[in-house]
Amino acid sequence: MFGEYSVNHNQADSACGEPAPGSGAKPAGLPDLPGNLPPETAGFIGREEELDRLDTLLRGRRLVTLTGVGGVGKSRLALRAATRRSRTARSGGPWPGSLWPDGIWWVDLSALRDPALLTTTVAHAIGPAGHSVRPLDEELCAWMADKALLLVLDTCEHLVAEVRHLTGELLQSAPGLTVLTTSRERLDSPGETVLEVRPLACEGPDSEALALFRARALAASPRTSADFADPERCRTAAEVCRRLDGIPLALELAGARMRMWSLDEMAQRLGARLEVLSGTRAARPPRHQTMRTTIGWSHELCEPVERLLWARLSVFSGEFDVAAARAVCAGGPLPAARVERVLEGLVAKSVVRRSHERGAGARYRMLDTIREFGHDWLTELGEVRTVADRHAHWYAALCAAGDRGWLGPGQLDWYRRMTAEHPQLRTALEHLLGTDPAAALEMAGALWFFWFSCGHVHEGRAFLERALRAAPRPGATRVQAQWALGLTLLLQGDMDAARATGVECTRAAALVTDPELRLRAAHLHAVSVLMRGDPAEALVLAGPRARAAHGGRDDGAGRLLCQLATAYALCDLGRFEEAAEEAHGLREACAELGERWLRAYADYVLAVAALGLGQHGEAARHVRAMLSGKRLLGDRFGIALGLDLLAAAVAALGDGELAARLLGTGHAWWRTVGRPQMGSPSLTALRDRGERQARAAIGDAAYETAFRGGAAASTG
Q1: What's this model's pTM, rounded to 2 decimal places?
Q2: How far is it, in rounded angstroms, from Cα 529 to Cα 207?
Q3: Does residue 616 register a pLDDT over 80?
């Protein structure tokens, strides 16, 4: 009926696993510490003293902030510290689970432009899906109350007030929580410990700054190895490092230039440039001034088309691919055919970083400090609105393609693609809401599968409500957006609003000519009454007669979702053989499409029908097939549903202990979803039935022990 993808596929693998450890060395056979740390993209040099200091602080303080100028390496230091703690589990040392058994979680805030989405971003990264009508910050605090984890919030300087408020709420609610933030300025929070990240030491022939500069220079041009072998030239290199104040990003930009110049040329050109520019930003602190001057120097040394691409790339938030860069940034002296080559030129100069290797999957990003410089240049060129429009319409077209392709063999690829593009989708929607509300409404509605199935319910509801208010004109686009809004309301358990939206959507759909939209509206209306306990009415709204009256494609999302609602309604009415027949037809249609998400829900209905017919072994087989699909897709709602159903099946087969463990694990998964059983009478009755049978089989004491063991199993 509904469900979502999770951001962490490992969560699903542990749905029926053993309890997570609580302390001491890592017990044999248990999974590594959960989390989502990004890979370290480049070698890490030095900082041992800072790492040891940070490690000590994280053991004893609950809120630590790394501060420092842009480009000094705050994010990289935080990632290295978190990665080192995580890797302890694999190196034979004391297991980090003794401090944070619920994992180490990384939230990159650099691409977040709307402060209102901070809580949504954090919640989606670490677990709770937000399927509740209560404020998400309250839901997140409640979910984290008994968790012990390290939360790393990276790049907070543009959200200081909001991060200060959220971390304060979370730390008060969760005694086991430790928060590490990186920011150019401190949060000024009670209990905050600030560790300033200073530039690398430049003194001596073995300084960390020289080691970094040497490494980047050798990566750019191996021929420079001879320069660093000569003591006199090493002193020249050390002078370059000193002039750059030991700031890592400045050293990397300079090192990339060594493919063109010798050390002597580097020192001469850099010295002259710093002397000219050092007085132009007198209001800036010296290290900020050095960084800005170095970026400006790198900018002037780029080819004109490279500078143009640098400026236009500044509209991207987070990572992007070549196709997007080509569509958004081409024009004038930069034809589309040249974009990729010019982009690789910026990679070679360390202006742009490649997140993955070359090829179809390559993705790129700019550090914030460099992106900000590019955006200033784009403003001077007078192209901000033009390029932002291109960006927004490119991603709007991508969303429309995702809507068309979601129920097909590329479903998992679409999930991964849209998850990777999430920051760009936000940026595009925000731009369109301010410049083209009708296009924003169309884009928000096309993203129904992202809001509904990929874990972005709160965010989706907010964008859809804003777009519907901004573009009130009736028509097919509005019907689609109303339907998408109704789906988010269902998942939040806001049944009154869902039913009202379903009724309104049905009326509006009757006025358009597209049968697919009428079927989608019928599905929403049917599920809204089904979840309130009226399966007979749901059958009238979405059953075979209603579908025939609406017409439409047999493989459209509206018809398939109506079939699913019909099968659920038949189960609730006790008409299990008819429900199984409907579910078999739905499963076959999904198999022909190569679709997985909806097919797994067909397996779920087949399991419910088999259970109702007394075929307990058959029910267990179907629900295991359903869970297999949901684990592959990380559908947390589906996993929670499936665990309750599997518990009922194995309890009926007489295995009360396993049923109790499954119910405990299901309880943990429901906590990541929000409201247990979504408040549905039929889902609650199914879950309670399994509990009664399990207690009867093994007794209350054994049941409680097994339930607690299952609940302790890590869902991430």
Answers
A1: 0.86
A2: 70
A3: yes
